[in-house]
Write a structure and sequence with these properties.
The structure holds 2 protein chains of 2 kinds. Chain A is an alpha/beta fold. Helix content of chain A is 39%, strand content 19%. Chain A has 7 helices and 9 strands; from the N terminus they run αααβββαβαβαββββα. In chain A, the strands form 3 sheets. In chain A, strands 5-4-3-8-9 form a 5-stranded mixed sheet. The longest helix of chain A is centred in the N-terminal third of the chain and has 17 residues. Chain B is mainly beta. Helices cover 15% and strands 51% of the residues of chain B. Chain B contains 1 helix and 10 strands; from the N terminus they run H-E-E-E-E-E-E-E-E-E-E. Classes of the chains: A alpha/beta, B mainly beta.
Chain lengths: 219, 154
């Protein structure tokens, strides 16, 4: 909810200068609160139906060993989708650890899940590089690469923003990228999304709630 | 031979570093990094800097021989976006501890000369405006390690 705090801070700043604006601002804040409550912005990890309709869809990527992987490759399973790249030294490995811990914590129920790590850097992350990378966290995580076009298409489908940032003084390029973990139901519809929290146990609990139908608002 | 040289350099470096720590009040503790997942060419080092002295200091840079390039970085989540930006310097206020940890500030090792292996150690030199160069030993924990004292996952 940091964006909300930032918004409140921004609204509050001119208010100190002009107290006459107070009633108007209170009204605006009440309206904002109503929007947040109505659209479930305050609840986590469930997402809105509107967003669910927009996120996900067909993709055609290259899996380990060069095999083509699509959204239909895992019938009956929930896809747990995360985007990243192997040159990412901090947040991506930390999130991979979180996902690996969650799979461990889910025990036998992890069999209902197909965890996918989709690279935003297909130029350097070949299927072989990705296979080697994911195996170090949990062999169940499938690394997916593809042509620049295929990756751009899946980024678009998942509303993932990834921008290449050139390195300084000859350093390799890096990416700014969305770091959201998506849970898609067996029909390929977004059931929930999670922000990396560093806690595999919390992620497992969130996933279990969705699998049990206790959370997620797509019922 | 190489590790012997490294050890020798370390001994030479650590003596003045220890003196500086006494005078400047800066101590770098619990330096750790994760083993490389496969051929991943970059890494991140984490640690705690404690400033027990009466005056503020500033971390201005880092050097590490295991990588082509070493930079101070900060990962930041802004909304759903993960951004990593280089830091020119990091203030270390008097009487405080500044933490470099996963998902936040870290020393980025860019272009590792060889994958980092669990159980290995290597020296990292941090440059401070007042306290000067401080060299610490970085412990390599498992790929899924979560801290200097964390047990390996397997």
């Amino acid at each position: 909810m940091t964006w909300l705090q930032r918004l409140i801070a921004r609204v509050a700043a001119p208010l100190r200068a002009q107290p006459a604006l107070l009633p108007l601002t209170a009204l605006a804040l009440a309206a904002l609160l109503a929007v947040v409550v109505l659209y479930g912005g305050g609840t986590s990890p469930a997402t809105t139906q509107m967003a669910a309709a927009q996120i996900g869809g067909p993709f055609r990527l290259t899996g380990p060993d060069g095999r083509i992987v699509t959204e239909r490759s895992f019938p009956g399973k929930w896809m747990l989708v995360f985007f990243g790249y192997t040159f990412c030294p901090d947040v991506c490995p930390t999130t991979m650890i979180e996902i690996a811990q969650a799979l461990e914590a889910l025990g036998p129920r992890a069999a209902e899940i197909e965890p996918l790590f989709i690279t935003v850097d297909p130029e350097r992350d070949t299927p072989k590089v990705l296979k080697d990378y994911t195996a170090h966290f949990d062999a169940r995580i499938i690394g997916l690469s593809g042509s620049a076009e295929a990756i751009a298409a899946v980024e678009k489908a998942y509303r993932v923003y990834a921008a290449k940032r050139p390195g300084t003084n000859g350093a390799p390029y890096l990416f700014d990228h969305s770091a959201i973990i998506y849970l898609m139901n067996p029909s390929g519809v977004l059931a929930a999304h999670f922000s990396p929290s560093g806690s595999g146990a919390a992620l497992a609990a969130g996933i279990r709630d969705v699998l049990d139908g206790k959370s997620g608002d797509l019922g | 031979m190489r590790s012997l040289l490294v050890g020798l350099v370390l001994v030479l470096l650590s003596a003045p570093a220890a003196l500086a720590a006494d005078h400047g009040g800066i101590a770098v503790m619990q330096a750790w990094t994760r083993a490389s997942p496969g051929q991943a060419p970059n890494g991140a080092v984490y640690f705690v800097i404690r400033n027990a002295g009466p005056s503020a200091d500033v971390l201005t840079g880092a050097y590490c021989e295991v990588a082509q390039k070493t930079e101070l970085h900060e990962s930041m989540m802004s909304g759903a976006m993960m951004q990593m930006k280089p830091l020119a310097e990091v203030p270390i206020p008097a009487g405080q501890a500044v933490e470099f940890k996963p998902g936040g500030r870290h020393v980025m090792l860019m272009g590792l000369k060889a994958p980092l292996k669990e159980g290995d150690h290597f020296p990292l030199t941090l440059d401070f405006k007042s306290a000067g160069a401080q060299t610490v030993e970085v412990a390599v924990v498992g790929v899924a390690g979560e801290g200097p004292a964390a047990m390996p996952m397997h």
